[in-house]
Amino acid sequence: MLTSARMVKLFLVVILALLLVGCSSTKISDSWEASNIDEPPAKKILLIAIAKDPVTRRFFEEHFVAEASEKGVEVIPSFKFAPHATDLDEKEEIIKILKESGADGVLIAQLRSIDEKSGYVPNRLSWFPDAGSSALFYDYYFESYRAIHRPGYIGSDSYFRMQLRYFSARSEKMLWAGNTVTKNPRSVVGTIEQIADKTIGELRSADLVQGGGLF
After folding, report:
1. Closest CA to 45 of 136, 194, 176, 214
2. Lowest mean pLDDT among 99-113, 135-149, 178-192
3. Domain of life here (predicted)?
4. What percent of the chain stands above pLDDT 90?
5. Cα diameter, the chain
6. CA–CA distance from 153 to each of 115, 118, 119, 126, 147 (Å)?
7. Cβ atoms of 123 and 150 closer than 8 Å
8. How far apart, in Å, are the Cα atoms of 46 and each of 18, 128, 148?
9. Could you report how far apart the first and last alpha carbons of the chain are, in Å?
């Protein structure tokens, strides 16, 4: 028989598991990694979010950088060196920013699409006890359940898709590419944090970045 202390511990474990499942709505839908990479893991990464609106770009970069920092990876936002999208129009300008940042890796993030898909949720039959607490056994057995028909309906899901590409600052070659998809995002900040978490995890698994531990 479970003691009160063990029951509390079990309850906390279950709650934590549910929270982790509930927060994991973002995933890497597909990815690619260069073969025979002759590059040391990057110590610093320059993040460039492609967005015409400077506020949107800064918002994304700030929250991505914050989440990466939590994972022990140093990511530098490009808006610090180039606050406007027009500051990145020329290759020479990007090279200059890269040198100023001191980064040895470049991560480019771009919104691919925001899609909405509709689908039919079929009807179903549900059963639940209907008799009151004063019902006798036979009455309860034969009369307590009734079928409830729930008609089908049209439901919709939203999908937020990002494209991420990682390059070597030294060779300028692409070393990793990945696409993320977030189903029914609940918050913009939460979605950015999840994208950063998944991306940093992939780069770390590929031994392309330094820093961080298990968490």
Report:
1. 176
2. 135-149
3. Bacteria
4. 53
5. 86
6. 20, 10, 8, 16, 19
7. yes
8. 34, 57, 57
9. 35
Token pair recorded at residue 187: 């918050």
- Domains of the chain, earliest start first: 26-117+159-205 (3.40.50), 120-150 (no CATH)
pLDDT at 147 over 70: no
Structure token pair of residue 212: 């961080």
The predicted structure's pLDDT at residue 153:
65
Distances (CA, A) of 29 to 10, 50, 63, 164, 207: 33, 20, 21, 11, 20
> Model's pTM, two decimal places?
0.72
Calculate the alpha carbon distances from 9 to 17, 18, 20 in Å.
12, 14, 17
Q: How many helices (H) and strands (E) does the chain have?
A: 5, 8
| E strand residue ranges, 51-194 | 74-77, 105-121, 124-129, 145-150, 153-168, 174-183
